[in-house]
Structure formats: C-alpha cells, structure tokens
Amino acid sequence: MTGTAWDAFWSGLPTERGAALWDSSPHLTAARHLPLLREHADPALPLIDVGCGSGRQTRWLARHFPRVLGLDVAEAAVELAAALHPAPNVSYRRADLLDEDTARAVHAECGDANVYLRGVLHQLAPADRVRMLTSIRLLLGGTGVLFAQELTERTGWYVAQLLSDGEDLPKTAGLAAHFDFGARIAPAHEGRLRRLFEANGYDVVADGDIPLHTTERTSGGHPLELPTRYLVARASAPARRRPGTDRRDIRRDS
Ligand SMILES: C[S@@+](CC[C@H](N)C(=O)[O-])C[C@H]1O[C@@H](n2cnc3c(N)ncnc32)[C@H](O)[C@@H]1O
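# S-adenosylmethionine complex -> structure
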C-alpha cells in the first residue's frame, strides 16, 4: 500500500482508540513483545516505532525506553497518534522509511536505536521490503536491536477461511475488500520471513510463532487472534557482509 492509501485509510477511520483491526490493547501486544526485545536489546538506547499508526503501542513502549520516536508515512496517522497517545518522552513525525536518506537523517539525530516494527512489511511490494530493511539497518547502527511482528501467508489463509466460513467480521472483511488482505499477504511462509532478513544484512537472534490480537470478536465472542511470526534481529557487522557474494544474498529469492 502507498503512503497516500495509508493516509486515506487513517483519515477515514473513526478517531476512537482501537478503531483499526490491529489496534489492540498494549497489554496483549507491546507488553508481550517487550520481553522478547529486552532479552537482546540495550534499554538505554532510544526506541523507534517504524509505522507507528495510532501510537497506541508506541506510548506503552515509552515507559521502558528513555526516548521514543513514532514514525509513519501517513500524516493522518501521526496526527492521530499525537492526539490520542502523547507522552513527554514520545514524539511522532511523518517519515517514509522507504527512503534511505530519511533513515540516515534520523540516525544522525538519534544515534543507534532499537526498532519496533509491527505489521508494516506485509503490505509492501517485495522491492520495497528490501528498501525498508535497508533503512531499518541504518536506524539500528551497530548496537540497536529490532523486534518485528509480521503477517505471513498463513495469516492470509486463516483469514480467507474464516470469511468463507461466513464469520461476521466487518473490520476484517472491510480490510480484505479494500486492501487485498489475505491475497497479497506476505512475506509468505514462516521460514521466508527469517530468510528475508538474513538475506538483507541482519543476524536473526530469535524468531517464532506469535498471535496478533485484533480488536474484533468472532461469532463465538472470542477476540480474533491471527497467526503471525515475530523476529528479533541486529544489523550484521559490515566486515562480515560481502554484498552480492554473501551466501545469504543468493538465498534471497528462494
Ligand atoms: C498495519 S499498520 C500498523 C500500525 C502499528 N505498527 C500498530 O501495530 O498498531 C501499518 C502502518 O505502517 C505505516 N507505513 C506503511 N508504509 C510505511 C513507510 N514506507 N514508512 C513509514 N510508515 C509506513 C502505515 O501508514 C501504517 O500506519
């Protein structure tokens, strides 16, 4: 999805907390991710929430880091985040993380940072995923650590099955109709998410299955949870990377 499409999405959404399908309580979301990140990350570094959306997770995370920056390509998301989820050590700003120069400027300002990335990659075209991974590497520098939660092909199959079973899930169905949710969902199967990072200059230190809690309930009255993957990674040391010749680059398209 493009920045303009995301802007239209956020502008058209009701402004109350939790209006977006993925805008779940931080107690079910960031609070479960933090220990996975903290196991490997230096909590004295700032945290950058890339694609921060409404800022709901961003503000919760700000209790655990000295400074937090929420970046989003959609001006409407940044405005919503600033209105709904302000905090003294959080700032929100519009930034397109497909742009390497933007990432360089943020790194020049903040230094090495930890990065939180939830549900952003799967809507990008394959070449843009690689561009975003380049930008995130710049944000991490030599000492930052990334936590990512991402939808995979399995998420798409799961959603398609629920909808074809006739589940009454208006938010999920709305996203499916508007954004091809389920059909374009990637990066494909579980192992490929890890390989995408490994092929683009990351050392993955942990990964696994993790549910994505949504703000929608199934007909049985249970909160809808989607099967997704998480991953914790650092930027590979430059000396260990020889672009183009590294075996991990060769595996990129497998
Ligand atoms: C599915 S939402 C997830 C929001 C938030 N991470 C969360 O978990 O609540 C994806 C967000 O990524 C943002 N985004 C998409 N492409 C981006 C880009 N190139 N640079 C920065 N943000 C981007 C969108 O505007 C949107 O707010």
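# post-check
The chain has one domain: 3-253.
Residues 239-254 have pLDDT under 50 and may be disordered.
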